[in-house]
Specification:
The chain has about 325 residues and is of the alpha/beta class. The protein has one domain: Metal-dependent hydrolases (TIM Barrel, Alpha-Beta Barrel), CATH 3.20.20. Helix 5 runs parallel beside helix 6 and helix 12 runs antiparallel to helix 13. The protein is globular and about 50 Å long. Bound molecules: hypoxanthine (HPA) and zinc ion. Zinc ion binds next to strand 1. The site of zinc ion has 6 residues, from strand 1.
Length: about 325
């Protein structure tokens, strides 16, 4: 069956990483910038591996020069999500790409993003620091998040090159965000092993883990995550595309779910990884035999782990009931 119309919740989506390549190419040509090096002949993004992906990502971000570009980006992303049945999404946004960590500039970017609107879908923001930009920049990002916590800004997290630095380097930022009332998540266990997932979880006191799938390599950690009810923001297509697992059948999402871990499904950076939420569902159906009840459970898990307030949660729950 086609899963396109099925209502979905997506928790792990990088806003700039969701930019359709045609949108970035269009902006580059409006601004007279030459970004041909980051595109393939078929129009998609061109990169060799994860590190190169991060630099192509930053090059694509270079056309997003002001709040207006972010408003247009958010609008384009919302339209794409709605086209795939997404009724609630959380998106990672970095103050580093929105005014370089300056609080006043950040507020203008945020206001612009919130101008974007598509009926039937709610978008919330999880503010991320970028691990390879280092702890000092992360502090500025945390202050931006803490000062703008509210209806849209719900969480704080960390993205970027997972193997650089240690979780403890970012403790100040996570403490700052937690004290302001923000929910917490962090990328871990995509490139790092199970021990690094535990380190990140215990050091930063996060409620959800971005990816987290390498936890599957340590049965005790799997048990502890299940018992603590920690939600994993799994992005199976992203993991297979980047070679974390050779095929979806080798991806541990099913095994983790069977072990009682809260797993959810997201796309990460959909055009970069040649995916959409519809494609994720199709692939999971084909590989693991997941059907309507499985996806309903995955969406219920995602909604209960969402960083929104309970009024929004109740509203989204109603959208999930509609087929
Ligand atoms: N992983 C880590 N950092 C990122 C990603 C990602 O997929 N996208 C943008 N920043
Ligand atoms: Zn990610």
């Amino acid at each position: 069956m086609s899963w396109k119309q099925t209502p979905k919740v997506e928790l792990h989506l990088h806003l700039e990483g969701a930019a359709p390549p045609s949108f970035i190419r269009g902006l580059a040509s409006e601004k007279g910038m030459d970004l041909s090096a980051i595109f393939k002949e078929d129009g998609g993004y061109a990169y060799r591996d994860f590190d190169h992906f991060l630099s192509v990502y930053e090059a694509a971000c270079s056309v997003l020069t002001g709040p207006e570009e972010f408003q247009r980006l958010t609008q384009a992303v919302l339209e794409e999500l709605a086209d795939h049945g997404v009724v609630y999404a959380e998106t990672f946004v970095s103050p580093d790409f929105c005014g370089g960590g300056d609080l006043e500039a950040w507020k203008d970017y945020l206001a612009a993003m919130q101008e974007a609107h598509v009926d039937g879908i709610t978008l919330k923001g999880v503010i991320t620091c970028i691990r390879h930009f280092g702890p000092e920049k992360a502090k500025a990002a945390a202050v931006c998040a803490a000062e703008t916590y509210g209806d849209f800004v719900r969480g704080f997290g960390i993205a970027g090159a997972e193997l650089m630095g240690k979780p403890s380097d970012f403790m100040w930022s996570f403490d700052c965000a937690r004290e302001a009332g923000l929910h917490l998540t962090a990328h871990a266990g995509e490139w790092g092993d199970a021990a690094s997932v535990r380190d990140c979880w215990e050091t930063l006191g996060i409620e959800r883990i971005g990816h987290g799938v390498r936890a599957a390599e340590d049965p005790k950690l799997v048990e502890d995550l299940a018992e603590a009810g920690v939600t994993l923001e799994c992005c199976p297509g992203s993991n297979v595309f980047l070679g974390v697992y050779p095929t979806l059948s080798k991806h541990p999402i099913q095994k983790l779910r069977e072990a009682g871990v809260m797993v959810t499904v997201s796309t990460d950076d959909p055009p970069f990884f040649d995916t959409t939420m519809t494609k994720e569902y199709e692939d999971l159906e084909r590989t693991f035999g997941w059907g309507e009840e499985d996806f309903a459970e995955i969406n219920a898990t995602a909604l209960s782990a969402a960083f929104c307030d309970d009024e929004t949660r109740a509203e989204v729950a109603k959208r999930l009931e509609k087929k």
